[in-house]
Automatic annotation (TrEMBL):
Family to which the UniProt record says this protein belongs: Belongs to the DegT/DnrJ/EryC1 family.
Domain of life: Bacteria
Residues bearing PTM N6-(pyridoxal phosphate)lysine: 205
Organism: Rhodobacter maris
Gene3D superfamilies the UniProt entry points to: Type I PLP-dependent aspartate aminotransferase-like (Major domain)
Keyword flag Oxidoreductase: no
InterPro entries in alphabetical order: DegT/StrS_aminotransferase (IPR000653), PyrdxlP-dep_Trfase (IPR015424), PyrdxlP-dep_Trfase_major (IPR015421)
PANTHER family: PROTEIN RV3402C (PTHR30244:SF9), TRANSAMINASE (PTHR30244)
Lineage start: Bacteria, Pseudomonadati, Pseudomonadota, Alphaproteobacteria, Rhodobacterales
This protein's name: dTDP-4-amino-4,6-dideoxygalactose transaminase
């Protein structure tokens, strides 16, 4: 298969290149006890005992009730299940979905796969997210059947504000919280009363199982509906009660997820160590770095002052053999698949997309390599580094 180089990928040089991501999932020996359980039960899918155990343990870790967590086979499928469950239960038939222009493409893809027409919104410059209070006066609100707020890079958004928006407008709301699981594990986080959150368990996230997702909600009726959506419409019988699909998590994915949960205290400490190292290195510069706990631990971002400064940073990173990513690209409207979507004016989205750069971030990223990365972000430090090599 052809694998063209992505934006920010310098020529492959195994001797010195720093990748932007290097996921680490549970080692084989930690999976063996769970794999033996699968051998014993001979249950491989269809909400087996390991899936049930994983859902129960995650619910306990998040301080939720036993039936507040539903697993599935990807973060995108979690979005689809939550969207379709909301639509089925609300009876709301508006075809328009409002969502931020600055997000990963899966947000729009999930909405469109559920039959919605997407309309892109600009974001607030301080949160990089859509604000619920401002949206209540949107001129197309009467057409709206769904709002899809996004928690960018795992930054916590106004969850209770979105609950109030839903309560006052009656419009279904589903929150794309793809990278938020590590943030949601922090004490004091309270889920909205009825709005669902969709979480990704992709290998690149702070907590991952390779591919997987979660729907989180305190509304057990909504989760029952999402269960049906992910189970070909079945619940307690062989008669399909709704139009569904197969989005279930397998027992093998649950085995990886359980082993990940077993070792997550250690992994979380590793993410924290990387974030602290970035913060320490950043104190020697005037650049703005974003790391945990402000965002999810799997990200390290630099916010350049303007697009020109961002371009110069990228050039220095490429020259130094350091990968980077514009994780959301130029925003949805910059992707050919979504370029024709209707949208509000998007000046903030365009500005933020041009200035935010994803830096290397993985659990065993060395402190010396972090120093090398951060040095590339500051012209004086980059010059010093170049001089030291001369």
């Amino acid at each position: 298969m052809l694998t063209p180089e992505a934006d920010g990928m310098p020529p492959r040089d195994p001797s010195g290149r720093i990748p932007v991501a290097r996921p680490s999932l549970p080692r084989a020996e930690t999976l063996v006890p769970y794999l033996r359980r699968i051998d014993e039960t001979r249950i491989y899918s269809n909400h087996g005992p390991l899936v049930d155990l994983f859902e129960a343990r995650i619910a306990e870790r998040l301080g939720l009730g036993k039936h507040a967590v539903l697993s599935c086979n990807s973060g995108t499928m979690a979005l689809v299940a939550a969207i379709r469950a909301e639509r089925n239960l609300s009876g709301h038939r508006g075809r328009l979905c409002l969502l931020p222009a600055y997000t990963f493409v899966a947000t729009a893809g999930a909405a469109q796969s559920c039959g919605y027409d997407c309309h892109l919104l600009d974001i607030a410059p301080d949160t990089w997210a859509v604000e619920p209070a401002a949206l209540r006066h949107h001129p197309r609100l009467s057409e709206v059947g769904l709002v899809l707020p996004v928690a960018p890079y795992g930054r916590m958004i106004d969850l209770q504000g979105w609950q109030e928006f839903h309560d006052k407008t009656g419009i279904p709301v589903v929150i794309d919280a793809a990278a938020c699981l590590d943030r949601l594990m922090h004490p004091g986080t309270v889920l909205p009363r009825s709005i669902p959150l969709a979480v990704s368990l992709h290998a690149t996230k702070s907590f991952g199982c390779g591919e997987g997702g979660l729907v989180l909600s305190r509304d057990t009726g909504l989760l029952r509906e999402a269960y049906k959506v992910l189970n070909n419409g079945f619940l307690g019988s062989r008669e399909a009660q709704t139009a569904g699909l197969n989005g279930k998590m397998s027992e093998y994915a649950a085995a990886v997820a359980l082993a990940e949960l077993d070792g997550f205290a250690r992994k979380s400490a590793q993410w924290t160590k990387v974030a602290v190292a970035y913060a320490d290195a950043g104190r020697e510069t005037e650049v703005t770095l974003w790391t945990a706990p402000q965002i999810s631990g799997c990200y390290a971002l630099v916010e350049a002052a303007n697009a020109g400064h961002a371009a110069a940073m990228k050039a220095r990173l490429v020259a130094a053999g350091i990968d980077f990513r514009n994780w959301y690209g130029g925003g949805l409207s910059a992707h050919p698949a979504y370029a024709r979507l209707s949208h509000d004016p998007l000046p903030v989205s365009a500005d933020v997309a041009a200035r935010i750069i994803g830096l290397p971030c993985f659990t065993d990223l060395a402190k010396a390599d972090i120093g090398r990365i951060v040095a590339c972000l500051s012209p004086p430090l980059a010059a010093q580094m170049q001089a030291s090599r001369s």
